[in-house]
């Protein structure tokens, strides 16, 4: 039986990735003592790998594909193929930023003021390029963690990953510039993509994962509507596509089924009720495939 070797990111993206795989239809069970999670698909073999290392193992063919951040692909310089963007992070469905930050009371106002200074970061190679582009000769030091705690004693500035900026603010740091925007990506290698079976298997997983992501901000809505009020009800619905309208046993009524943004439901349902809709049911979605 052919097998697709898939890398799952260990660390900040791990829980969200496993949650989305579950919504996509794949149950992944992680044993705290093993780096080889179980998955309920005999055609997939999973391995937990740090996102920073994923490009290396995908490039070498140890893994056929892996989920990581585009930041680590750029940092590694490895020759891998990006096959999909997946817009999610640890805390939400959005991009993250690598930012240049200094203490709130620092006299440093921009990258230009860091000539001859020390910058601590995990993203060493990319920050070196960033400094070179800005014609700044700074000392770039690799940070093994707790990067926010290093200024001002251990470094003059940091380049750190942030999703909301809360950790930086808690450590009395201010952002001077965005060095890089990043998002989750699926990467593969040329050999894997030449294999028709592996390519099809990977495409299927990606379609389901993207569908799970699409569903995160959507809900389904079913309602019964008097036929003579249908036009008015439809004018209230911000439908993903044209709503599905079905006849009921009572010809004076129809059933309306649609998909909408979850953010509008709390305002929409009272309007639908006042307009004559009854039997309104809101339900969660696992996947929305466009």
From TrEMBL:
Belongs to the ATP phosphoribosyltransferase family. Long subfamily. The lineage of its organism: Bacteria, Bacillati, Saganbacteria. Pathway: Amino-acid biosynthesis; L-histidine biosynthesis; L-histidine from 5-phospho-alpha-D-ribose 1-diphosphate: step 1/9. Residues 215-287 form the Histidine biosynthesis HisG C-terminal domain. GO terms for biological process: L-histidine biosynthetic process. It is found in: Cytoplasm. Feedback inhibited by histidine. This is ATP phosphoribosyltransferase. GO terms for cellular component: cytoplasm. Its main location: cytoplasm. It is an enzyme of class 2 (transferase). Pfam families: HisG, HisG_C. InterPro entries: ATP-PRT_HisG_long, ATP_PRibTrfase_cat, ATP_PRibTrfase_HisG, HisG_C, N-reg_PII-like_a/b, N-reg_PII/ATP_PRibTrfase_C. Its cofactor is Mg(2+). Catalyzes the condensation of ATP and 5-phosphoribose 1-diphosphate to form N'-(5'-phosphoribosyl)-ATP (PR-ATP). Has a crucial role in the pathway because the rate of histidine biosynthesis seems to be controlled primarily by regulation of HisG enzymatic activity. Its EC number is 2.4.2.17. Residues 50-210 form the ATP phosphoribosyltransferase catalytic domain. It catalyses: 1-(5-phospho-beta-D-ribosyl)-ATP + diphosphate = 5-phospho-alpha-D-ribose 1-diphosphate + ATP. Keywords: Amino-acid biosynthesis, ATP-binding, Cytoplasm, Glycosyltransferase, Histidine biosynthesis, Magnesium, Metal-binding, Nucleotide-binding, Transferase. GO terms for molecular function: ATP binding; ATP phosphoribosyltransferase activity; magnesium ion binding.
